Amino acid sequence: MIKKNIATNEFGFVFNPATGDSYSSNPIAAEIIQLMKESRSLNEIKKTLLEKYDVDKLTIEKDIDDFVSLLKENNLLSN
């Protein structure tokens, strides 16, 4: 999902060496990116976050889908 060359850290820093672009993310976005780097499916990520945080399923699904769209727009996902 996340391109293999994308560098991240636990503080939410995201760096694309191909473009030189860097981004800062909040802790939950950083967690989503880490789960993606572990090759977890979107369904697995949604389930993990539902179990961990006090949030309803529709909110998690919308927020993750919006975040994935943002990652696509910034060319951070593999095809």
State the gist of this model.
With 79 residues, the chain is of the alpha+beta class. Helices cover 49% and strands 13% of the residues. It has helices spanning 27-37, 42-52, 57-73, and strands spanning 7-8, 13-16, 21-24.
How are the elements arranged and paired?
Blueprint: E1 7-8, E2 13-16, E3 21-24, H1 27-37, H2 42-52, H3 57-73
Antiparallel strand pairs: 1-2, 2-3
Model description:
The protein has helices at residues 27-37, 42-52, 57-73; strands at 7-8, 13-16, 21-24. By secondary structure, the protein is of the alpha+beta class. It has one domain. It has a 3-stranded antiparallel beta sheet, with helices on one face. A hairpin with a 4-residue loop joins strand 2 and strand 3. The model has no long low-confidence stretch (mean pLDDT 94).
- The helix-strand sequence is EEEHHH
Residues in β-strands, percent:
5-15%
Would you tell me the overall average pLDDT?
94
- Poorly predicted parts: none
Outline: globular
Distance between the amino and carboxyl termini: 8 Å
Integer tally of domains = 1
The structural class is alpha+beta
What is the helical fraction, as a range of percent? Answer: 40-55%
Strand order of the largest sheet: 1-2-3
> Using only CA atoms, what is the Rg?
12 Å
What is the strand tally? 3
Query: What characterizes the major β-sheet?
Result: 3 strands, antiparallel
Number of helical regions: 3
Task: List the keywords.
79 residues; alpha+beta; three-stranded antiparallel β-sheet; 3 strands; 49% helix; 13% strand
